[in-house]
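SAMPLE LOG
Freezer: B-3
Tube label: C17
Construct: single chain, 480 aa
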Amino acid sequence: MTSYSFPENFLWGGAIAANQAEGAFLEGGKGLSNVDLLPSGEKRISIMKGNVPSLSPVDGEYYPSHEAIGFYHRYKEDIALFAEIGFKALRISIAWARIFPNGNDETPNEAGLQYYDELFDELLRHGIQPVVTIAHFDVPVHLIEKYGSWRNRKLVDFFETYAKAIFTRYKDKVKYWMTFNEINMLLHLPFLGAGLVFKEGENKEQIQYQAAHHQLVASALAVKAGHEIIPDAKIGCMLAAAMTYPYTCNPDDVMKAMERDRESFFFIDVQSRGKYPGYAKRFFKDHDLNIAMEENDEELLKNHTVDYIGFSYYSSRCISTDPEVLSKMTSGNVFSSVSNPYVKKSEWGWTIDPKGLRITANQLYDRYQKPLFIVENGLGAIDELEGDQVNDDYRIDYLQHHVKEIAESIQDGVEILGYTSWGPIDIVSASSGEMKKRYGYIYVDKDNGGNGSLKRIKKKSFYWYKELIAANGANLAIRE
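STRUCTURE (predicted):
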């Protein structure tokens, strides 16, 4: 048996996103967002990739974000449960269209500002620090219709205005911020990540990397504004992270794995190091991509880097250059991967690799030498409600092995600010739109079709996490 320790000020908590939890999709003056156009079912992934049939809801489709789990109206009840667990932090996102319904309104929507005022007050009343993502897969639809979303430079200005508005409003309540959630998802699910819609014959790669540049500049401007308006704030970035293993020690596999990692590192290299890396410039040249930049963009990126690296980690990845091996790619995850024979898989085909979290944390810290914040990690599983109890020992097992590797990372010398596990309460799955893919410590009575009472029920993992936080991880002893 081994005992583990965490820093005294370690931020234990959980993470949710506005579009997966709030519901009330047009209440309080909120405008329509890209995520409000994602139905459940087979069409969802295709739309997230940019094949968007309509920029308004289609009759007969079920859109999970429209009600989600009703957090908008039930946040006091849910925050009380989080406080009972002992949360030190809750990562949430602000819905851009709740503050600026069209994205480019002259003045912000007071009802939206007031809602988050009350939400942050409730968190602080319970001693829970808000950790706020400015854009979590969230673009007002009006900006998509009128400007083509992030392919258009004008969104940089609209985003800066939005960021300044919320920094100014919440400067005394929020000290931890992140600019874009999983910014690298823009390359994989461009409508979800950046509101991008493609027409036949367009050079998608050119549009995606141009949009990426606009988001990177917008992020730098948000960091600049955040530091000016809230001098003691910490403004971070956020990466969908995971180590890519080479399938073999064949140098071609190793090179391929490095290239796969760099697809994601590119975004954080710019946000944390302040400049485009050489490998990205070569990639643009080799692929005939011409990224339009304004005169002071490079200076902005250089002078306004992030304070910390936020990242999600669910599963590691694996890649090969062998065509036969590549024919057996795993399904289920946005990031395609060769099946790794050394790790288990979840019900959705995601690898379960706790040690990969330690490897990824070390990899990021070695690369950037900035504090890390693990802002998403968890197990999506089908939970069976037995009376008023869910015995989710499989989730406890997953989480405690991952938290153990966080403790090992800290012993390695990695500076980690906190751990906000994904989905402390069951919410709508981003990738599938399902409710049956549950992550929470708290069960929500709702099914994939939107039926249910929304009643909240504590799972077995609720009590496990409560004990873990109360002991600040000192009770995390695992017999291997």
